[in-house]
Write a structure and sequence with these properties.
- The chain contains eleven helices and 16 strands.
- The chain is α/β, with parallel strands linked by helices.
- It has two domains: 131 residues, translation initiation factor eif-2b, domain 1 (Four Helix Bundle (Hemerythrin (Met), subunit A)); 198 residues, Translation initiation factor eif-2b, domain 2 (Rossmann fold, 3-Layer(aba) Sandwich), CATH 3.40.50.
- It has a seven-stranded mixed beta sheet, with helices on both faces. Strands 11-8-9-14 form a four-stranded mixed beta sheet, covered by helices on one side. Strands 1-2-3 form a three-stranded antiparallel beta sheet, with helices on one face.
- Strand 15 and strand 16 form a beta hairpin.
- The chain is globular, with a radius of gyration of 20 Å.
């Protein structure tokens, strides 16, 4: 388990580690309103699909606690409005909409007056966090057997404790393998332009004492060609019903390289990341972010004022994925057929 809290509910506040400040400083943001939570999601103070889902649930609960209405109908109406604001923060990670739907479901089904509904929503948000941590541990247990002893695992972006309620998805698999006594080294890509690999994954692994080597994104093909990578394990922000996976930009490239070099390519994600209403990757919305993420680092310009294209995610087709690791076990090919068996 990580030695920090990614996000927690504390005294009717939502407290989260500020991931924009890592690794230079470990500071925490205290969100007092649902608007604060929405802003934190937009600015990537908190990021990673499962963590965004937790934040969404807590943001709705926080908004609900502060609703002044004392009649049930007025309260429900206001919480639905708040949920719409949270839902509009980021488009690609399906865990966000999953959490919003879950919170609205307990709102509709909850019994009692306004005070009882507030308590129900707070409990549900806290349950989402607790369940996410347990889910990640189960993902780790399910995937650890795929990682060989004395191997080097390449990962992209950050799918660790920082991207979840705790423990991690892709890094959860690595952590579980290490906890099982295996000697594992990790290769982390820097993950331009937001540098989640350099700033977050390397920080997490180093803090946990897991050997990590940081590389630039364009070194991946070279080190694969030299036999330096045993497996690739990444997370996902949304998985379509056919097994296509949206993840941080650059993941698709790594999948092509891994396929070329006969290296297994695994996606680790909870069932809440699978969008069974989405038939394939072409239907997944891709967020495009601010051009300054490409042209500036820490506020300092590194490029001339030119046109910038900055999609935050890309789609890895199911044929490039060796298996998908979930809390219910490893889903092997054919992915579309075997994923459908997990639909609740």
């Amino acid at each position: 388990m990580s030695s920090f809290n990614t996000i927690e509910w504390k005294d009717n506040r939502v407290v989260m580690i500020d991931q924009t400040k890592l690794p230079r400083e470990e500071t925490y943001v205290e969100c007092r309103t649902y608007e604060d939570v929405a802003d934190a999601i937009r600015r990537m103070v908190i990021r990673g699909a499962p963590a965004i889902g937790v934040a969404a649930g807590m943001g709705i609960a926080l908004g609900a606690v502060n609703v002044p209405a004392d009649d049930r109908a007025g309260f429900v109406s206001e919480v639905k409005r708040i949920s719409g604001v949270i839902l509009g923060t980021r488009p690609t990670a399906v865990n966000l909409s999953w959490a919003v739907k879950r919170m609205l479901r307990v709102l509709e089904e909850g019994e009692g007056g306004v005070d009882e509904l507030k308590a129900i929503l707070v409990k549900e948000a806290r349950d989402i966090l607790d369940e996410d941590i347990e889910t990640c541990r189960n993902i780790g247990k399910a995937g650890a057997g795929l990682i060989r002893d004395n191997s080097a695992v390449l990962t992209h972006c950050n799918a660790g404790a920082l991207a979840t309620g705790g423990y991690g998805t892709a890094l959860g698999v690595i952590r579980a393998a290490v906890e099982g006594g295996k000697n594992i080294k990790v290769i982390a890509t820097e993950t331009r332009p937001f540098l989640q690999g350099a700033r977050l994954t390397a920080w997490e692994l180093d803090r946990d004492g897991i050997p990590v080597t940081l590389i630039t994104d364009n070194m991946a093909g070279y080190i694969m060609s030299k036999g330096m990578v045993s497996a690739v394990v990444v997370g996902a922000d949304r998985i379509a019903a056919n097994g296509d996976a949206a993840n941080k930009i650059g993941t698709y490239t790594l999948s092509v390289l891994a396929k070329t070099h006969n290296i297994p390519f695994y996606v680790a994600a909870p069932l809440s990341t699978i969008d069974f209403d989405c038939p394939g990757g072409d239907s997944i919305p891709i967020e495009e972010r601010d051009s300054r993420e490409v042209t500036h680092i820490n506020g300092t310009s590194i490029a001339p004022e030119v046109n910038v294209y900055n999609p935050a995610f890309d789609i890895t087709p199911n044929e490039n994925i060796s298996a998908i690791i979930t809390e219910k076990g490893v889903v092997e090919k054919p992915l579309a057929v075997n994923l459908s068996k997990l639909r609740g």
